Amino acid sequence: MKKVLITILLASLLLSASAVFAADASPDAAKLNYYGLASLGALVGIGLAAAGGGIGMGHGLRGIMEGSARNPGVAGKLLTTFIIGLALIETLVIYALVIVLITYYANPFVK
């Protein structure tokens, strides 16, 4: 299943990149090339950041549930630490979003 998903992802990236590189060498084509590649990079960057954050949050949730099941008396302390950890993971995903947006909207063609 993972191989099929990776193959589909790579094929879609190659098809979208080939459409960007097929443009001619005019000045408008350079803008199209830049925005096409910026869009492709934004898509991949946000996807990876969201996937990594989701995986990290899932592992954290599994850990707190196992800890609470083993010792219900410390569930309050675990919950506080878990919420702080989730906030830190989410800020990393938001930082990735900010970097992607800055990269996407920084236009090198404006004089």
Key features of this structure:
mainly alpha, single chain, elongated, 111 residues
Helix-strand makeup class = mainly alpha
Alpha plus pi helix count: 3
CATH class (first level) name: Mainly Alpha
Main sheet record: none
**CATH domain topology:** F1FO ATP Synthase
* Helicity, as a percent range: over 70%
Number of strands: 0
**Could you tell me the mean pLDDT?**
78
CATH architecture: Up-down Bundle
**What is Rg?**
21 Å
Low-confidence stretches: none
State the end-to-end CA separation: 48 Å
Query: What overall geometry do the principal axes of the alpha carbons give?
Result: elongated
Q: What can you tell me about this protein's structure?
A:
The model has no long low-confidence stretch (mean pLDDT 78). Helix 1 packs antiparallel against helix 2 and helix 2 packs antiparallel against helix 3. It is built from three helices and no strands. It is an all-alpha fold. 0% of the residues are buried. It has one domain: F1F0 ATP synthase subunit C (F1FO ATP Synthase, Up-down Bundle), CATH 1.20.20.10. Helices cover 86% and strands 0% of the residues.
